[in-house]
Amino acid sequence: MSALDAYELVVGMEVHAQLNTASKLFCGCEVEPSAEANTRTCPVCLGHPGTLPVLNQAAFRKALTLAVALESELEAATELDRKNYYYPDLPKNYQISQIYHNIGPGGTIELLRSGQRVRMHNVHLEEDAGKLIHEGGGGATSTVDLNRAGTPLAEIVTHPDFRSVDEVDDYMETLTQLLRVLDISHARMNEGNLRFEASISVRKQGEEELGPRVEIKNLNSYSAVRRAIDYERARQVALLEAGLQPRQETRLWSEDWDPNKTRAGAYEQDVPAEHRASLEAVVALLPPGKDGWRGRTGFMRSKEDTQDYRYFPEPDLPPIALADDEVAAIRAALPELPGARRRRFVDALGLPQKAAEVLARDYDLADYFEAVVAGGAAPGEAINLVLNQVAALLNEKSLGAAECPVPAAWVAELIALMSELPKDLVLKKVWPTVIKEELSPREVVAKHKIEAVSGDAIREATDAAWAANPKAVADILAGNKKAAGAIVGAVMKATKGQAGPREVNARIQELVKEAQDRQ
């Protein structure tokens, strides 16, 4: 067993999700990420003396909706607090956040792929900081854009329940889908409105006590999260194997870390030289980053404890009572959540796990699929058409499922036709004509007089296939029903795919009875 395998990975996640409101959390400034720098500000979000915050009710309701969806242990009231810290990009030099009475303490989330339930620590509401912009070599010039200062965030914190990168990946995908389904956040990492931070520690297999927690910031993609966890696990194991204890600290992730260009001291307390080779051997197994470099975590600052932020209740905002009827209304309006929907598709409809995951990731496509089933199609047949023919059409036209030009009822009708006409005939002739002429499948069949080979032609083709396939006939008579596929395939080949499957199978049953009567 390698040194890495001797240790258990322990991960907790913090996520900052920008709420998709029109205005900021405590003022009326427009939320517009693409606006020219410092043009979406006012005295309130610039922290001018004498200004007072006013809570954005839409932002509060979105955060409360998330807490209800996660089954948080809601209290009778919630309140906001001041978090005091030096923020170069938050002018008033403190952040309005929550710690003592969070909007959503506790709760769980059911993961999309595995069905695992992860314990939530809390959901709380807070304002975002602005954005520092460093330009020139070594950050010679720095400016600040305060358009983002005061933007509403939901911070979502889990317990340290993850034991693998795959579990973290499952969580990130599930949470992203949840935020979109609830219409709480656009959840686009590339636009900065969804930011993940991983708190990582390792401990010997079988131990109960948690190791020192290292928080990784600057993670701007799912890939970065996965690779940062992989690297940080290897780094901490190498430290422990060297007899050193990892520190509780905050580190940055550098996607294209270059040891020749990194500023001095940025990567202090990395693995000692005598153990670096073993670390590098593990790192070499990880996927390379941009330009072939493999990422590294680097020291940012020692990790603060709660007391370092000198929290106290926000004096300019009163506590907010959570009305039972409002919470009940939010709960009643919740859509089916991603994990539960995936589970229902598997357990109740019998869909394969992967197909259920695809639908649970795309609610419009899932709604379309369910409409096909509601039109009378069997779930197994519906999923095949939706994930193949319908998905190909949407991809070709760059459309979402909600914009599909073929109604779900027509797809259900197409499936029904497959019991009357050969499948190949339906898919290769009827389906393309449905798309081209915008007619229902039965209208296409009637207009173009599409017919299957039937009657005497079917009888002759089936009899010929029966005579030409003695082994398949013997297997059928021995009770192997699947062997009939060879006969059906021969008939389809002879009729160029235009034989009606019902008539072919009916004639096969007649031939079976005749053969049994002769025995």
Task: Walk me through the structure.
By secondary structure, this protein is an alpha+beta fold. Strands 1, 5, 6, 7, 10, 11, 12, 13 and 14 form a nine-stranded mixed beta sheet that branches. The chain has a three-stranded antiparallel beta sheet with strand order 4-3-15, with no helix packed on it. Helix 8 crosses helix 10. About 1% of the residues have low confidence.
Per-chain topology:
Elements: E1 7-18, H1 57-69, E2 77-78, E3 81-84, E4 94-97, E5 104-105, E6 108-110, E7 117-127, E8 131-135, E9 141-145, E10 152-158, H2 165-181, E11 194-204, E12 214-219, H3 222-241, E13 249-254, H4 273-283, E14 296-302, E15 312-313, E16 320-321, H5 324-333, H6 338-347, H7 353-361, H8 363-374, H9 379-397, H10 408-417, H11 423-437, H12 441-448, H13 456-468, H14 470-477, H15 484-494, H16 501-518
Which descriptor suits the 3D outline? elongated
Beta strand %: 15-25%
Gap from first CA to last CA: 65 Å
Structural classification: alpha+beta
Rg over CA atoms: 31 Å
Unreliable spans are 262-268
Brief account:
With 519 residues, the chain is an alpha+beta fold. Helices cover 39% and strands 17% of the residues. The chain contains 16 helices and 16 strands.
